[in-house]
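S1.2 Input.
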Amino acid sequence: MMQNAMLYLIIEKFYPGKVKELYQRLDTEGRFLPDGVTYVGSWIDENIETCYQVMDSPSREKLQEWMDHWAGYCEWEVMPVITSAQAKEKVLGRL
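S1.3 Output.
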């Protein structure tokens, strides 16, 4: 994780009939990541309807820049998250 960045869990609910077009665009044009935004990883449900993605970004606004490139393909739910190690430190009063 970058210095002063935040992890975000993004749940993408794909619009019906848009998944193939989304993957084709990703394959030909890339992720459209703004400066400072890093793709960490993603997992897709077996029905290929929902993507669970983790992104590292210096701000919610920078993350929105990335999401704006993909408008029309899915609905978004965005949640700031911390790692398990960070949660443990926070709970035990070490942060």
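S1.4 Remarks. The beta strands are 6-14, 38-44, 50-57, 74-81.
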